Automatic annotation (TrEMBL):
GO cellular component, as recorded: extracellular matrix
Pfam families: Peptidase_M10
Keyword annotations from UniProtKB, A to Z: ATP-binding, Helicase, Hydrolase, Metal-binding, Nucleotide-binding, Protease, Signal, Zinc
Swiss-Prot/TrEMBL GO biological process terms: proteolysis
UniProt KW Metal-binding keyword: yes
Gene Ontology molecular function terms on file: helicase activity; metalloendopeptidase activity; zinc ion binding
Residues of the Peptidase M10 metallopeptidase domain: 76-207
Top-level division of the source organism's lineage: Bacteria
The protein's name in its UniProt record: Helicase
UniProt signal peptide: 1-21
Amino acid sequence: MKRFFKTILVLAFLFIGLDFAYQKAAPEIEKTFGTRNPLPYLTAKVQQFISPEKIQNDNNAKGHTFESNTATVYLDLSNPTLKQAAIDGINIWNNTGAFNFKMTNDKNNAKIIIKAMNDGQTNAAGLTDTQYNSLTGHLIKATVNLNSYYLLNPSYGYNHGRIVNTVEHELGHAIGLVHKDGISVMYPQGSFYTIQPSDVEDVKKLYQEQ
């Protein structure tokens, strides 16, 4: 019984000591974390460390980049029109010298995969999903989806040039570019313009600053 009361007494003093220390430290905790209860913040950081990979789509892109201005690309396309447009879009980007896309036959190790989708529920002719490491901010993988529902339907007016522009636009998202108003390949309706000198400068700046 004496041991029990002694344990209770020790725990009580320990609790009082911890409470006193917390009250002293509370202003600094609030200054650092913006709250006197940093547990949710610290929990989120631990979860982020355990599982650092995050997925986003191009509508929420925040300019994440690959570690360097080079990435391997796998073409998961059977339609010859889309496949040729993808090849042309890659070559146009490569000719700018701002980024180097290297085509590969190894799908599992490709940084970027270009594939087809057929979805009339979205109004987008292309969508890009990117996966990045939330600790480093660097992109890990990107998937470019070319929407055949629009691109291959003559009633929507997509000729080869507009399909190539769409590829260029989505590859821009895949390497970290965001939407941009004005004459730019990253114009939100991404099939009207090819890559412009300002787009090249945007990529160079993005990868010089990383």
